[in-house]
Amino acid sequence: MSPSAGGLVVFLLSVQVIQSQNGWRVDYFKTDVCAAKGSTVNIICDITHPPGIYYYDIKDRFWFTKEKDGEPVDLRTDSEYSGRVTDRCYSKTCYLIIRDVRESDSAEYKFTFMTNKPGEKYTGSPGVTLSVTGLQVQVRRSDSTWLELTCHSSCVLSDRAEYVWYKNEENIETGSSLLVSSGSTDRYSCYLIGSSGEDSPAVYGPQRPSVSVSPSAEMLEGDSVTLTCSADANPAASYTWYKEDGTSDPRLLSEEPQLVFSSIQSSDSGNYSCTAENQLGRKTSDFISIDVKYGPQRPSVSVSPSAEMLEGDSVTLTCSTDANPAANYTWYKEHEDSPRASGQIFTITDFTAEHSGNYYCEAQNEMGRSNSTLLLITESAVGRTTRIIHITRWTLVSVMLILLLVFCLWTRKKKAVSSTTEPHESREAVEMDLHPEYEDLSDMAAQREDPEEQEDQV
Prior knowledge:
Layout: E1 9-10, E2 16-17, E3 25-28, E4 32-36, E5 40-48, E6 58-64, E7 67-68, E8 71-72, E9 85-90, E10 93-98, E11 107-115, E12 121-123, E13 128-133, E14 136-141, E15 146-152, E16 163-167, E17 170-174, E18 177-181, E19 188-192, E20 210-214, E21 219-220, E22 225-230, E23 238-244, E24 251-254, E25 258-261, E26 270-278, E27 281-284, E28 288-290, E29 292-293, E30 300-304, E31 315-320, E32 328-333, E33 341-342, E34 345-348, E35 357-365, E36 368-371, E37 375-377, H1 381-432, H2 436-457
Parallel strand pairs: 1-5, 4-13, 21-29
Antiparallel strand pairs: 2-3, 3-5, 5-10, 6-11, 7-8, 9-10, 11-12, 11-13, 14-15, 15-18, 16-17, 16-19, 20-22, 22-25, 23-24, 23-26, 26-27, 26-28, 30-31, 31-34, 32-33, 32-35, 35-36, 35-37
């Protein structure tokens, strides 16, 4: 992206005169240098020798920024500058060329030398202070519609510095500043014309944020859970967390990149989103669903109908609880090991006195189980009275039927006896009422029989 024109080499034009040492003196062209990151810097000094001594009397000379055990360290041997440093001297003028300068190169550079005279050495001090800066685009709101972008550096690169602006890596115009529309999704950067340095980092509004959850495994009630929102943006985005609560406007929760639940609860289940925003724009993430697992709470039991129950009624018991995942239900009668029913609803279709007693339901899921309190189901007083009346009534009816049956049988028997005894009684009465003539006839018959008997005897 950088222009193909020759790289900018920073020459030091003003001369800094250093106090001489026994007639030796080092003069730097400039003691403060500002260079763009990635550019090439050329630091220059002149050596002045005392009368009667010549430059060839200099045995060794080099540039340094550090000392070890009180002795300067040759910059050419420093691994941080390996392959990037050139040190040259022409007659009395010496050069230090540093290529591809980095912000870590910012330091004070000094030139030192030793003569043929044993122990004689000199250093140009103070040295040259190099400040390496990267270009930055500053964003300032001009009004509700426009933003002003300014190419900025931490030190003054040049009194006549000129910049070129790029939009999505395409050259659009030159100048120290640029106006762009608010909310633009484009990327903007600037470059120092004539420099071999780097472009500024591009500025742009946030991309759609992403949300991560830690731990990513199944969330249980009481766990520590952290939601993290991140978005690619420059300048860095600020973040806001929201929870959807069924209204048109989600509820604001936090204005930090992370939303931390030290002990997450079932009430924290729901849909969450985060918003990333900087001066150039604003974007909102997709909703992320948080599903907190927990065991059943103590179940509640309702009975229908709630009015007094009579024998033969249909009674419905309903068990309900809060659990995630949803609970399974089992119904028990007190002091019984075997369940009476399974499912959320238990119906007794033909209620009798034998169904009376204490009932409870058990709610269970993979997280645990919980029992409801006992619910007494019994026949109402009216029902018991009615049942007694029914029993009494049926008993009386039964007794009456039995008595009636006995009476009928007795009557029938009496009639049967009457029909068999009345003819005999009539005959006897007839015999008793015979006229005397019939009695005479009897006597005559008897007399008639006697001669015969007499004959038999003869």
